[in-house]
Every structure is written in C-alpha cells, then in structure tokens.
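Handout, section B. The chain below has 297 residues.
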Amino acid sequence: MSLIPFDDRDGSVWLDNGLVPWREAKLHVLSHGLHYASCVFEGERVYNGEVFKLTEHSARLVHSAELLDMTLPWSVADLDAATRAVVAANNILDGYVRPVIWRGSEMMAVSAQQAAPRLAIATWTWPSYFSPEARLRGIRLAWAKWSRPAPNTAPTSAKAAGLYMICTLSKHAAERDGYQDALMLDYRGQIAEATGANVFFVIDGVLHTPTPDCFLDGITRRTVIDLARQHGYKLVERAIFPEELDKVQEVFLTGTAAEITPVSEIEGRQFTVGPVTRTLIDAYNALVRRTVAASAA
C-alpha cells in the first residue's frame, strides 16, 4: 500500500497566525530549526472533534520553547484557539494534531537570537498508533542500543525535536528485527521509556514506572497514574533496572498516540495482557469519552 505524502494532502494548516491551504504550509530550506534542531512540538489526540487535554499540551509546548530559549508571540490561549480552528477547518472527528514551533531563517549559525519563531499546526485522521490486532495481543519490544541522555547534556524535559533522533534510530533497528518498538535505557543503565511512550510494569499487582528525571513526563503517563490511584492500585515511581523484568507480570506503554498499549514481549521475556492493564485501558477509554462529552456540552 502506497503512503500519502504529508506535503501533498487536502485541507488547511495553521501557519504562524492563520489558516493556509495544506500544500502552501512551507518553510525555507535554510530555517534554523532544520539545521540546528531548534524545534519543539506536541502530539495531541482528537476524540469526537475535541482535543483531549488541549491546554496541558499547549502549556507544555510553550514550556518546551522556553527551555530552548525561544520568546513566543503566542500564549497558551492563542495555541488552544488555533488548534481548535484547525480541527474544525479539517472536519476531524477522531485524529491526531501536530503543533510545531521552530526558529526561522533570519540567521544561519549556531547563534540564533534574531531567528524568529514560526508556528504550524496540522491535524489528520489517525485512529491508532499500533494496529488494533497488535494492541490486543500486546506488542513486542527490542532493547535500544541508544540511551536517553543525562539532564546536564540536553534539555531532557522539553519535547524537542533533537531528542528524538535516537528514538528514530532505535525504532528502525527494532522494526528491522521484527519488533514493533524499542525500550530505551538511560545514561545510568536504568529503564527509561520506549521511543515515543512511557512504560509501566506490574509486579504482584503493584504498578511501577521509571522516575522521569531525564526523559519526558508524559501527559498520558500522568493521566494513567491518576487513574491507577483512583482504582486503588499502589503505584511506585522509582529507578527500575533491566534485571528486574524477571519479576514482572504485565507491561504497558502510555502516550498520546499509543494511549495504553500492552506489551507481550521484551526480547525473549514474555508478559501477559493482564487484569491491571485491561482495567486501566477501560478506565482511560471511559475518561476520554467523559471528557469529550463534557467539552461538547
């Protein structure tokens, strides 16, 4: 099946301060963001025409830009309004939203104080990150050879484009070997996250998840933590090492795109799609439906 290129589609994209036809949403080849990774972004889900936790995403986008020393002319409220306009203009009911901010082409050097920030927001129909069949049986993870960097080497709490280079490399390697994704360690050898999602482990009914001190503390991750506590599960955020997987019964990933995705294998270690995972999947789906209904009311 041939792919539809993302630069050749119908619809509208928000560019800087208004909507433009999709194919006209362009940046110059000498944009600073392309050459020096001065770029931040978000991933958001649309359910029945409403963006789930939109303001949290917009606020994180602004925070990421500030961490990359960008001064934005757009507020969180501006980003919320622009996002809703894009979703409405493209008639998206269930889909994905990609806001991105990058430094423009006024300067072409490491120093870029005069390179003005640019904004684009696009949305498209996208029902599931992994196939429904893979989600039901659990996906298979390889170990990534790349590690998440220390927080004194990169702005690790930003959702910054440059931090995803090793994620792309890790996922490509995993897919070549027949896996759906890769699990990454951090610079200390502790389990960190998958290439685009946080990870949770169930050990004897207790949920354990790595402390996000050198990788993104996901919005979906925080949502699932709240749901777990509401359902009476004990949850521990801590350093988790690979050798502890022998004690684990269930594993799942969380992310805006992945939602809650069970894991059936991590390179030879097998896990069940068990009761804790299934309960939280149902709880997350119910929360999304309630939130969307309340927003539409």
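Note. Residues 132-293 form a domain with the D-amino Acid Aminotransferase; Chain A, domain 2 fold (CATH 3.20.10.10). Compare this with the example in section A.
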